[in-house]
Design goal:
The chain is an alpha/beta fold. Helix content is 52%, strand content 17%. Strands 1-2-3-4-5-6-7-8 form an eight-stranded parallel barrel, surrounded by seven helices. Strand 3, helix 4 and strand 4 form a beta-alpha-beta unit. The longest helix has 16 residues. The chain is globular and about 80 Å long. The N and C termini lie far apart (54 Å). The model has no long low-confidence stretch (mean pLDDT 97). It binds SN-glycerol-3-phosphate. The site of SN-glycerol-3-phosphate has 9 residues, from helix 7.
Length: 223
């Protein structure tokens, strides 16, 4: 499963990129607004920080012509960019056109299997199934992800299922279990993936025993 960071904060991207595990970054208008910086410069800085990664950047137009115009502009900034387009009729129509033009799209704000079907048929490279926002209102967001993965495999669609709106490491585990292609997550969640109390306790014991035995790796020359 590919691991993406869901952020508009270049400092978070820098840190996660250091770990060498990052396959891409997803942004959205709210995350870019939160960054307090200009859209194009932020996206391009993120591209530079993850040079092999797929970087999603979202349009804000909601009409066909407007989406196409913005998508062509955004895609022109860097070949790493995947243009994010919401799952609305005019957006799906634009995704179809962009797909035929060879421009990769990430169809976002997908919450149901029928919506995912439309995104896949339109040729979206990524289908962003939101899970956290469904869970936030008492639903089971991962259910639509599992169904979407099954649909992609059953009908050999080319889209990749991207689990989005991730709230905690359990969503990452569930994304793995249902066979999602990609999981995008906030920096906080990615950081949490490292944590286990038995790792902390185990490392402490190793180091305590080592130090108590007075052992060295770089042994001083015997005189
Ligand atoms: O960026 C798309 C998605 O991951 C955002 O989800 O619910 O955290 O705003 P959310």
């Amino acid at each position: 499963m590919k691991v993406f960071l869901d952020t508009g904060d270049v400092k978070e991207v820098e840190k996660a990129a250091e770990w060498g595990l990052l396959d891409g970054v997803t942004t959205n208008p709210s995350l870019i607004a939160k960054s307090g910086r200009r859209f194009r410069e932020t996206v391009l800085e993120i591209c530079g920080l993850v040079p092999e990664g797929a970087i999603s950047a979202e349009v804000v137009a909601t009409d066909y012509e407007g989406v196409l115009k913005e998508a062509h502009e955004i895609a022109s900034w860097n070949p790493q960019i995947v243009v994010k387009v919401p799952l609305i009729p005019e957006g799906v129509r634009a995704i179809r056109t962009l797909s035929q033009e060879g421009i990769r799209t990430n169809c976002t704000l997908v919450f149901s299997l029928p919506q995912a079907l439309l995104a896949a048929k339109a040729g979206a490279a990524f289908i962003s199934n939101f899970v956290g926002r469904v869970d936030d209102v008492g639903g089971d967001g991962m259910e639509a992800v599992a169904d979407t993965v099954d649909m992609i495999e059953q009908y050999s669609f080319n889209s990749e299922v991207l689990v989005a709106s991730v709230r905690h490491p359990k969503h990452v585990v569930e994304a793995l279990q249902v066979g999602a292609h990609i999981c995008t997550m906030p920096f906080k969640v990615m950081n949490q993936l490292f944590n286990h109390p038995l790792t902390d306790a185990g490392l402490k014991r190793f180091l305590d025993d080592w130090n108590e035995a007075g052992l060295e790796i770089f042994e001083k020359a015997r005189v």
